Amino acid sequence: MTTVTLGPEGTYSHRAAQAVTDDEISFSESVTAIVEAVADGEAERGVVPVENSIEGSVTESLDAFAEYDVAVVEEIITPIRHALLAQDDSFSLVASHAQALAQCRGWLDEHYPGVNVEAVASTARGVERARGDADIAAIGHPENATNGTELKVLAEDIQDRSSNATRFVVVAPKSERSEAGGKSSFIVYPDVDYPGLLLELLEPFADRDINLTRVESRPSGERLGDYVFHIDISAGLYEQRTQDALADIEDIAGKGWVRRLGSYDSKTVVN
């Protein structure tokens, strides 16, 4: 089984993928490309980040789920420990993924005020840049410095909050969508707009005592002010209350569509 995730080797996504498979792992530098590969049958699994406890949702992932019909089959919660890596402390630029830079913004402002920053495709790509250029530092997992002799760990745990964690999901072909699991995700595109619409979309869950763990809107791309809603709940699609709630949602979104990404269980991986 081939699993594809964000690369190159050594990213936090790679670490999450290693926690769910012992099979071959290949790499992409685009979340959209990962989801597309699974939807098109080019990969059996994809592991992508969807949410960070500091910076919020990974919007590229949400948009890819709306564009490509795939299943979510597992959730992985990974505490994120960032370290500052460089050949020495004479660097003038910090290169890392935009999320990592944002998660360490306060620490960098305090310890390296005015340092230049550059967003790259992944934390591992920033590490590669730092290995090849003494003027560049990277933000990544501390173990990234041990994979070679060029880099030193200048500081550990530089994330602005110790509770920093990222939520990853494992995506699979839509044929593997499951109704079993403690959590479920789906996408709603009502294709209508009127006062009280969002309230109507939420009431079926409140009426059945279903907890919503995330509700987020993303532009549909059809027209300005038109939105797709991403919803996660603490209930399985196998439950009658969930089925009844979704039946109400499908009636409300009769002019649009509802995509059930599936039900799944969650685990926390410390690495």
TrEMBL record:
Gene responsible for this protein: pheA
Keyword ATP-binding on entry: no
Prephenate dehydratase domain ranges (all copies): 5-174
Keyword Cell membrane: no
Keywords: Amino-acid biosynthesis, Aromatic amino acid biosynthesis, Lyase, Phenylalanine biosynthesis
Record's protein name: Prephenate dehydratase
Single annotated GO MF: prephenate dehydratase activity
EC numbers, comma separated: 4.2.1.51
Domain named ACT: residues: 195-233
NCBIfam families, sorted: PRK11898.1
PROSITE patterns recorded: PREPHENATE_DEHYDR_2 (PS00858)
CDD domains attached to this UniProt entry: ACT_CM-PDT, PBP2_PDT_1
Organism in which the protein naturally occurs: Haloarcula argentinensis
Pfam families in the record: ACT, PDT
InterPro entries, per database record: ACT-like_dom_sf, ACT_dom, Preph_deHydtase, Preph_deHydtase_CS
Pathway per the UniProt entry: Amino-acid biosynthesis
